[in-house]
Each structure stands twice: as C-alpha cells, then as structure tokens.
C-alpha cells in the first residue's frame, strides 16, 4: 500500500514513524495529516530499500528546502553532479531534484539515487525532449514509458505539468512574459501544434496508476 492508503486505514508506517521523529511529533500525528491530504512523504519503494531518510512535507511540519541540480548538454558529468549532491546535503537540503537535460540521463539519475539519502525528484518531461527530439513529436506512450522507467529507478516525486490546459492558452497573450515555466511552455507549444488537450491532463489517471505502483508523489506544476 502507498503511504496515503496506509494512513487512511489507520496504519502508522515505518516512514511515518521516522518522519515524525525528525519533526518532534508522533507517528499518529503524521498519519492523520497524510490521511487528510495535508501532508506527503515522498518515498519510492525502490529508493526506500536503500535506507532513504523519510521526509514529511506539509504545512503542519517544518518548511523544507529543495535543491535543484542537473547536467546540461554543454557541461557537467556524473562525478560533478555527485559533487553538487554532496554540497546540497552538506548544507541540509531536505530534497533534491535532478533536472538533467544532457549526457547519459539514466546513468546520472541512478548514480544520484544510489547516493541520495533524501527524496529525489525529477521533471520527466525534460528527458522526453532530449537528444534533439522536437516537443511536437511527444506521444502519450512516451510519457508513460519515461515515467515508468524513472519510477522503477527509484525517483520519489515527479513534477507533472498537468495544470496548464488548452483553454488557458489564450491567457498567455496578455502576459508580459508569456509562459515562464519551461515545462508549461513546452506543453503549450505541443497543444498549439496538435490542437489537443494537455497530454499529461488527458492521461492523468494512467499516471496515477503508474505512480501508485511505486508510491511516487506528485509535485503538480502549472
């Protein structure tokens, strides 16, 4: 069962207990907050196997700091990303995101997961547009395949840009900077090209099923 499924059944998981200890509250408090939809513990079952520190995120606990790292097509490598990870951990980052867009993405990501004792997240869309593939060629199958692979590798949370819908696109015309989110702008281009709804919104139920299998958390992007 996922953390929220256990919480709703009245079960205090080991992750809830450990997260509570870190926050100075008991596991029952954490369970109630998760069951009520006010808190999450990003803990992919694959990553948890390696002794990841369970971290509670929600208004009732301490504010968390997330550090963004990642290799680009122009620079960086696996060892440099590990150095970035270690600096983030040294200065007490509570979570880390691998936003790599260049190099061997799978090798870099797995290397980070293996060495990351805190929740690690990604923006799966970034991998889907690497190797020079135009965003217009993105398919529903590409989305599900990439998300499934990253979940299997142990990613704890995904930023999924499902909030920007086709009917919102007209609003960008009155914005000085247009769409400022990288993921949002990519999907905006996809929607305009195909004349269809946001693919992440269209297959949201399928993403939920996939992420439930590994207990991956959503970080909903707009």
Q: Could you characterize the architecture of this molecule?
A:
- The protein is α/β, with parallel strands linked by helices and 222 residues long.
- It has helices at 3-8, 14-23, 27-35, 45-48, 78-90, 105-114, 124-128, 140-153, 182-194, 199-202, 204-214; strands at 39-40, 57-58, 66-69, 95-98, 120-122, 157-160, 217-220.
- The chain contains 11 helices and 7 strands.
- The chain has a 5-stranded parallel sheet with strand order 3-4-5-6-7. A two-stranded antiparallel ribbon has the order 1-2.
- The longest helix is centred in the middle third of the chain and has 14 residues, at 140-153.
- It is globular and about 50 Å long.
Give me some keywords for this one.
about 220 residues; alpha/beta; 5-stranded parallel sheet; about 45% helix
């Amino acid at each position: 069962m996922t953390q929220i499924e256990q919480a709703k059944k009245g079960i205090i998981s080991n992750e809830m207990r450990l997260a509570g200890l870190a926050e100075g509250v008991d596991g029952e408090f954490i369970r109630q907050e998760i069951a009520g939809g006010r808190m999450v513990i990003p803990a992919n079952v694959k990553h948890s196997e390696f002794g990841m520190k369970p971290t509670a995120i929600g208004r009732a606990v301490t504010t968390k700091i997330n550090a963004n790292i990642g290799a680009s097509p122009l620079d960086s490598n696996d060892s440099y990303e590990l150095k970035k990870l270690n600096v983030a951990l040294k200065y007490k980052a509570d979570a880390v995101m691998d936003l790599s867009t260049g190099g061997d993405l799978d090798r870099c990501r797995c290397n980070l997961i293996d060495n990351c004792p805190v929740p690690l997240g990604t923006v799966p869309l970034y991998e889907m547009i690497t190797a020079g593939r135009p965003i217009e060629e993105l398919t529903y199958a590409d989305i599900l395949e990439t998300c499934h692979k990253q979940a299997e590798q142990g990613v704890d949370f995904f930023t999924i840009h499902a909030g920007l819908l086709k009917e919102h696109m007209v609003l960008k015309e009155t914005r000085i900077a247009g769409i400022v989110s990288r993921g949002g702008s990519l999907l905006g281009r996809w929607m305009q090209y195909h004349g269809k709804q946001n693919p992440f919104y269209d297959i949201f139920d399928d993403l939920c099923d996939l992420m439930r299998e590994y207990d991956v958390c959503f970080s909903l992007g707009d």
